[in-house]
Structure formats: structure tokens, C-alpha cells
Automatic annotation (TrEMBL):
Keywords: Cell membrane, Electron transport, Heme, Iron, Membrane, Metal-binding, Transmembrane, Transmembrane helix, Transport. Pfam families: Cyt_bd_oxida_I. The keyword Phosphoprotein does not apply. It comes from the Bacteria. The keyword Transmembrane applies. Its main location: membrane. This is Cytochrome ubiquinol oxidase subunit I. It is a multi-pass membrane protein. Belongs to the cytochrome ubiquinol oxidase subunit 1 family. It is found in: Cell membrane.
Length: 509
């Protein structure tokens, strides 16, 4: 037993504060982002369902609004709880980063906080408690105010993150970036490309959720009469069409992001393709066989589409795309070959800088993002085909397909964010090739001065806490999904007996 304890202690010592802090932020961020896209997409779709009910008076749309609105509330509550930790971490584990960029980064985060906690919370509360208390149109306006506020919150968060990817609107004052144009930060071309891409990803998540849950309910009572069948059928087909459109928008906006990445972060583009050597024209790698960890690709065999990467980079089939090996030299010339000899950097002080991101993560993460997005859209198309003209799927594979399909856009979204964040390493604030000279920050310089034990404690605590919250969310989601419409609609009042006082009262009204 003693040797086991000793070995565990030594293994803990080998993991430094920087690596633990990155794991902590990665775990909590990815977990939180599981709730965010579903809230954004579902809030807009629920508002659209309620709009249909107000305009038509069709009870089917009211049932849809009530059912999907209940699931939205469960997910939103968990998103708020897990999201609070995110901003605290900037002070907990990344205080050096916060001191460096606080004058810039704080503005969009403050705007998001005001929108999230005032507009979202206010109108969500009015929507929850306003049924049968507010006029229909006023109540509907609350639903739209809440849903649009979630989109606005996403906008401000993405503006902050995009500034880390492409810093603009700043100048150096006393060695720190100071914002001189909030307009430039909020209209950063990186943000303007990321926002529609992220929103399309959110709608793909909500669409798959509708297809999966509604498809399961539709299939479950396929052989018997079901008074709510049209609710599930309408929900499934709405999700199918939204998912198809969302994937088309993802493809278009992803192309725009790729062209910006070629200009702003060429190392990220090279790592997305595990492109070791400069090519002109450059081929797009479909998949690779071998170990892509090395920067020379000696043992890697790839299956490619000729010249496609050049087109994705610059809209032509002849553009040169630089490889990892060539870019390393350029980065060393621009940003240095070694970290500063600063004790705050710990074991990295004075050591050579590794400008190559984790190639297996970036290469395969990029393909997982695209692949699972396409699978999600494909399941939506198949569900639309199988339910055309009133058909109800009978195969026992159908519920497995649609329920499993719920996970696909979640995986694609998470893989996309992991690729985005890890692809800019070793920078936490990536340099802008045409921006202010010296406006960048290495991730190693951003971490707080903490002990390994302190970070281990917070990492384990938050991971276990999030695990418990995940179990709670799954339990509540399962409960209300299985409960169906009956779990969210109030029971109809009993019919008054003939000749009773109740009957006379009903006639009076």
C-alpha cells in the first residue's frame, strides 16, 4: 500500500499548475456548454411554438409550448448554475490573465452579465408565472424577450472569446492592453463569423433534441390511438427541418471562419489538417493513418482531396498553405524561441516555446466536429422521410437512431470548441498579424500563483459537483420526457353534472 501512495504522490507532483488549471477550465467549460446551445436553440423554437398558438388558437401548439418549455426550464436552470463558475475561474486559476486583459475583456462580460441576469431572468420569470395572468400577446412578448436575450448573451460572450483569438480595438498603456474602441471589439470580424456559426450549432442541438424525443414518443404509441400524436409529429418535423437548415448555415459560416483562420491563425489551420509541409496547391485531408503527433509526418498516410484546402483558405485552387514545420520558424522569429526567464513561469522559465498545438486533438477534433454535424443533419433528413404523409416508423431501430442522434450535435459542438481553443496554443491571447505589436499572451503566463494541491482540490471538487448536477439534470429530463404532455398540462376540470349548481354557473359564464 505504501508504494501505491508514494507512486500516486509522485504522479501528482509531475503534473504542474498550468496543466491542472487547463484541465479544470476545459472540464467545466465543456460541461457548461452542453447546456448553452440547447437553451439558445430551444428558447427560440419554444417562442415560435407559442407564436403559432397565439395566432391560430390550435391546442396542438399550446401543448408543444408547454412540453418543450418545461424541458427548456430544466436545462436553463442547470446552465445558470454551471455558468457561474466560469467567470469565477478567471480570478481563481487565471488571475494573471485577468490582470493583463481585464480592461478589455471585462466590458463584453459585464454586458453579458447585465443581459443574462436582468433581461433573461426578468422575462423568464414573467413567462413562467404569467400563464393565465398576462394577456396572451404580452406573455408571448416575454417569451421572445427571453429567447432574444439568450442570443444577445451568446453574442457578448463570443465577442470576448473572439478578442482572445484576434485582439482588436486596443492600445498599450503601461504595458497592458487598454480598449480604445468598444465598437471594434463588438464588430471584430472573427466574432461576426463565430456568432452565426455558434447559433447554427445551437439550433442543430435543439433540432436533434426535438427529433429524438418526439420520435421516441411517436414510435412508442405507434400501434394504438394517441391524442397527442400530432404534437409529436409536428415537433419531429419542425426539428428535422431546423436541423437541415442549421447544417447548411454551419457549412457556410464554417467556410468563412476557415478563410479568417488562414489569415489570422495559420498554425491553427495547419494543425487542423496536420499539414506538416507547405503545399501549393494544398490538399484537404479526409483522414489520416498513422501518428500525427510529429511535425514532420514521416509515418502518416493521408487520404486527400486535391487543391480543396487552397480553396477553403482563399477561394481559389492555387493558394499556398504553409505547413507546421515552416510556420514554427516564422513564429520563432516573431514571438521568440524561449519563454522569458521569469520565476512565475515555473519549470517553463527560459525553456523553448512549443508553437505546435496538440496535433491529434486538433486534427481529429476538426473531423469529429464536421462528421457528427453531418450525421445529425442526416438523421433529421431520414426522420423527415420516414414521417412523410402521416407515416409512423415501425422499426425497432428507429427510437435507437433518433435518441442516439440527440448526442451527435452535442459531440460536434464540443469538438469544435476544443479545436478552437487548443488550436491557438501556446497562446491564451493569440497575436493579431496586423494588430498592435506585442499584443499577445502565452498561456503559461496567464495562470495564477497557486500550489498543485490547491488546484487539485478545486479540480476534484468542481468535477464531482458537476457530475452530481449532470445526474440531476438527466433525472429531471428523463422524468418530464417520459411523462409526456400529461406531465406538463393541467388536468381538465370535471364536467358539471346535469342540473347542478355548477352547470348553472357554467352557463352564466
Amino acid at each position: 500500500m505504501n508504494w501505491l501512495v508514494t507512486a500516486a504522490a509522485r504522479s501528482i507532483e509531475l503534473v504542474d499548475v498550468l496543466e491542472l488549471a487547463r484541465w479544470q477550465f476545459g472540464i467545466t467549460t465543456v460541461y457548461h456548454f452542453l447546456m448553452v446551445p440547447l437553451t439558445i436553440g430551444l428558447s427560440v423554437l419554444v417562442a415560435a411554438m407559442q407564436t403559432a398558438w397565439v395566432r391560430t388558437g390550435n391546442p396542438r401548439h399550446l401543448k408543444m409550448t408547454k412540453f418543450w418549455g418545461k424541458l427548456l426550464l430544466v436545462n436553463f436552470a442547470m446552465g445558470v448554475v454551471t455558468g457561474i463558475v466560469q467567470e469565477f475561474q478567471f480570478g481563481m486559476s487565471w488571475s494573471a490573465y485577468s490582470r493583463f486583459v481585464g480592461d478589455v475583456f471585462g466590458a463584453p462580460l459585464a454586458m453579458e452579465g447585465l443581459v443574462a441576469f436582468f433581461v433573461e431572468s426578468t422575462f423568464l420569470g414573467l413567462w413562467i408565472f404569467g400563464w393565465d395572468r398576462l394577456p396572451k400577446k404580452v406573455h408571448l412578448a416575454c417569451a421572445w424577450a427571453f429567447s432574444l436575450a439568450t442570443v444577445a448573451s451568446a453574442y457578448f460572450i463570443l465577442a470576448a472569446n473572439s478578442w482572445m483569438q484576434h485582439p482588436v480595438g486596443v492600445e498599450f498603456v503601461d504595458g497592458k492592453p487598454t480598449m480604445n474602441s468598444i465598437g471594434s471589439v463588438l464588430t471584430n470580424n472573427t466574432a461576426l463569423a463565430a456568432i452565426p456559426h455558434t447559433l447554427a450549432g445551437a439550433f442543430s442541438v435543439a433540432a436533434a433534441f426535438l427529433v429524438g424525443v418526439a420520435g421516441w414518443h411517436l414510435w412508442r404509441k405507434r400501434g394504438s390511438s394517441d391524442e397527442h400524436r400530432e404534437v409529436w409529429r409536428s415537433s419531429l418535423r419542425l426539428g428535422g427541418w431546423v436541423g437541415v437548415v442549421a447544417f447548411a448555415v454551419l457549412a457556410i459560416t464554417g467556410d468563412t471562419q476557415g478563410k479568417l483562420m488562414f489569415e489570422q491563425q495559420p498554425m491553427k489551420m495547419a494543425s487542423a489538417e496536420a499539414l506538416c509541409h507547405t503545399e501549393k496547391p494544398a490538399s484537404f485531408s479526409i483522414m489520416a493513418i498513422g501518428d500525427v503527433r510529429g511535425a514532420n509526418c514521416e509515418d502518416v498516410k493521408t487520404f486527400t482531396v486535391p487543391a480543396l484546402l487552397s480553396f477553403l483558405a482563399h477561394n481559389d485552387f492555387s493558394t499556398e498553405v504553409k505547413g507546421v514545420e515552416n510556420l514554427v520558424g516564422e513564429y520563432q522569429a516573431k514571438y521568440g524561441t524561449n519563454y522569458p526567464d521569469d520565476p512565475a513561469l515555473g519549470p517553463l522559465a527560459g525553456q523553448p516555446i512549443d508553437y505546435v498545438p496538440n496535433l491529434p486533438v486538433t486534427y481529429w477534433g476538426f473531423r469529429v466536429m464536421i462528421g457528427f454535424g453531418a450525421i445529425s443533419a442526416g438523421i433529421g433528413v431520414l426522420a423527415l422521410w420516414l414521417t412523410r404523409r402521416g407515416r409512423i416508423p415501425n422499426g425497432h431501430w428507429f427510437p435507437l437512431l433518433v435518441l442516439g442522434g440527440i448526442a451527435t450535435p452535442f459531440i460536434g459542438n464540443s469538438a469544435g470548441w476544443i479545436f478552437t481553443e487548443m488550436g491557438r496554443q501556446p497562446f491564451v491571447v493569440a497575436p493579431n498579424p496586423t494588430g498592435v505589436e506585442g499584443m499577445w499572451m502565452f498561456t503559461a503566463q496567464a495562470v495564477s500563483k497557486l500550489s498543485v494541491g490547491e488546484v487539485w482540490t478545486s479540480l476534484i471538487t468542481l468535477t464531482l459537483l458537476y457530475l452530481v448536477l449532470g445526474v440531476v439534470e438527466l433525472y429531471l429530463m428523463r422524468k418530464y420526457v417520459r411523462g409526456g404532455i400529461e406531465a406538463v398540462m393541467p388536468p381538465a376540470p370535471p364536467s358539471p353534472k346535469e342540473g347542478s349548481d355548477d352547470e348553472a354557473l357554467s352557463f352564466a359564464y
